[in-house]
Amino acid sequence: MVDADDLEQLAKLLTDKRQLAEQYYARACRLVGQAQATPLAAMLRWAGDTATELGNRAAIVRAAEKGGDPFGALSEFGLSTALGAVSGEDRTRLTKDLKSVIARSATARPEQRTAAIRTFFGKLTAAEQASLAIEQPDVVGRLDGAPATVRYAANRLLIERAVAHEQKDLAALKATDPKNPQVTLLEKRVARMTEFLRPRMTGDGGSVPRQFLLFDPAGDGRVAEVFGDLATAKYVAVMVPGITNRLDNYDSIANDAVALLKDRASGRELPESAVITWLGYDTPEFGDSVLPAKAEAGAPALHSFRAGLEAAKGAKFALFAHSYGTLLSSKALQEGTPFDSVVFMGSPGLGPTIKSAADLELGPGTQVFAMRAPGDWVSYTEAHGGDPAEMADIRRLATGRSSGHSEYYTPKNTGLDNLQTILTGDGCVQTFMGSPKLDDEQFGAANVRVLIKELQSRVPQWKVGELSTAFEPIITGVMNGSTDIPTLTALTTKTLADSGLGGYFAPQDVAQIVGRSLTEAGLDQR
Questions:
Q1: Do 135 and 93 form a contact (C-beta atoms < 8 A)?
Q2: How far, in Å, CA of 121 to CA of 133, rounded?
Q3: Over the stretch 250-261, which tens digit does the pLDDT of each residue have?
Q4: Residue 143 and residue 117: Cα distance in Å, rounded?
Q5: How confident is the model at residue 286 (pLDDT cuts 50, 70, 90)?
Q6: What InterPro entries would the database entry show (predicted)?
Q7: Dmax of the chain from CA atoms?
Q8: Can you name the residues that pair with 482 across neighbouring β-strands?
């Protein structure tokens, strides 16, 4: 087994002896001439090069002891592998200095904090940047403002370590408790992370390493991935997903990003463009999706992430938010997070105080759009305020053949064409031309909106999430026209009882709520 300390000691021995060897070389030049002393010069070069190489190997070995392939992670993204130029004292100093910069800027605004990080890395040598990537990958990988390639390398190393760790956990669980439900979850997580280490195929038949600006496997997992060349991109889209998205099902978000970046006509990737998937917050499940807490916690993280992004000079940035991600994005925008264009898709609302785009107080010239596909019941509920698709100062876009809550990125469709047009600024968007009345685009939509609000008003806030989860099948039935009034009343009563929420309602309440939802939605109760 190679010992890093032995390698470093040998490198130091060669370096220490170099001064004496140089004296011998100088004396030989005087006695026999420089030409005759050439073999000594070659020996000196060998000693110097060998000492450097031994130092490089020692640094790689030391990092590899923690898991993963540090050399591979660095070389994959074109970073320096000449780590021998960074001594042990240098590594200690770099770690201390980075920690100090992070601490000093902890309370600053994201723009100032990321600028401080960017300045710090800008003063480092290529070898020092690479050294930090493999010595402090858990810090550098998520560090907004650090160079993208340095973060890519750090996160690749973290992914390799996480795969090894969770494979070990999975094997142990299968051996001791093979029927445990966690086995399936772990298998999905390991499969996703293993895919992260494989090259991504591009539209021209080539392949590139996958590029992550964030990777954290803790809990449900957090990920931010770049598709395209961020360094040269003039058009950048940041995708913010909504509820139930996590590490084990992240492939669906990645597929949407690939579709967004793919040119419809040529099949190649859109030129000078990059797409970033930002799953950088703890997404809610149905149970807590009606509470704003996770959006409020995630908004500062999105602001910081955007502040740390660098692309080509003058690049345009678009924000594509979906579902609960629209609420989080709304809060981030209200904090001053800058984007040139914003699209809200399938939004449950932007917050109770947001009645128009003007309430977001966006920068001059920011374009704001919204999409609502027929049958998107999440948007119909208005769980977090008014639907931006119905706000007068927000331009509603056509969604083509998309329906329901999760088809906004469907390939070769009007909805995706609109998103690509906004990303690149090339062409004209197609505006929604249908009736603004909910029930003209989906039977029972207005009924669902009022029904949900009435039910939510009767239960404590901490129970609203359970209510939404329980009523999803009923909502679907109402919208597709398969549920008549007596059936709706019976199903509502049964669902409340089965979910343990019946105690909040008197027997006559259900009939009154159903009746009120029909009356206020303008539907005939006969």
A1: no
A2: 11
A3: 999 999 999 999
A4: 8
A5: confident
A6: AB_hydrolase_fold (IPR029058), DUF1023 (IPR010427)
A7: 116
A8: none
Q: Which of 510, 450, 451, 447 is nearest to 481 (CA)?
A: 447
What are the phi and psi torsion angles at 124 (to 5°)?
-90, 155
Q: Is residue 526 scored above 50 in pLDDT?
A: no
Query: Would you say residue 133 has pLDDT above 50?
Result: yes
d(CA 48, CA 43): 9
In angstroms, the CA 450 to CA 452 distance is 6
Sequence-separated (6 or more) residues with CB below 8 Å from residue 338: 306, 317, 363
Region label for 396, one of left (φ > 0), alpha (ψ between -120 and 50) or beta (otherwise): beta
Residue 59: beta bridge partners?
none
Length reported for the chain: 526
- Chain-centre distance of CA 221, in angstroms? 10
Q: How far apart are CA 477 and CA 484, in angstroms?
A: 9
pLDDT (tens digit, 9 = 90+) per residue, 55-110? 666 666 666 667 889 889 999 999 998 877 787 788 889 999 999 999 999 999 99
- Distance from C-alpha of 490 to C-alpha of 495, rounded to nearest angstrom: 9
Helix, strand, or coil (residue 279): strand
Give the chain's end-to-end CA distance (angstroms, integer).
Answer: 83
Q: 142 Cβ partners below 8 Å, 6+ apart?
A: 151, 213, 214, 215, 216
Residues 6+ apart with CB under 8 A from 300: 110, 332, 335
**Burial track 355-393 (b if 16+ CB lie within 10 A, e otherwise):** eebebbebeeebbbbbbbbbbbbbbbbbbbbbbbbebee
- In angstroms, the CA 450 to CA 458 distance is 13
- Please give the Cα distance from 446 to 34 (Å, whole number): 94
Residue 22, pLDDT score? 65
Q: Which two tokens stand for residue 197?
A: 């280490």
Average pLDDT over residues 508-523: 79
Q: What is the pLDDT of residues 465-495, one digit of tens each?
A: 788 778 878 887 777 777 777 888 888 889 8
Strand-pair partners of 369 = 343, 395
Burial status of residue 515 (CB atoms within 10 A of its CB: 0-12, 13-18, 19 or more): middle
Scored b (16 or more CB within 10 A) or e, 88-120 reads: eeebeebeeebeebbeebeeeebbebbbebbeb
pTM here is 0.86
Q: How far apart are CA 238 and CA 301, in angstroms?
A: 13
pLDDT band at residue 525, thresholds of 50, 70 and 90?
A: very low
483 to each of 102, 376, 443, 447, 448, how far by Cα in Å? 57, 17, 11, 12, 12
Q: Exposed, middle or buried: residue 418 (CB in 10 Å: 0-12, 13-18, 19+)?
A: buried
Q: pLDDT band for 434, please (50, 70, 90 cuts).
A: confident
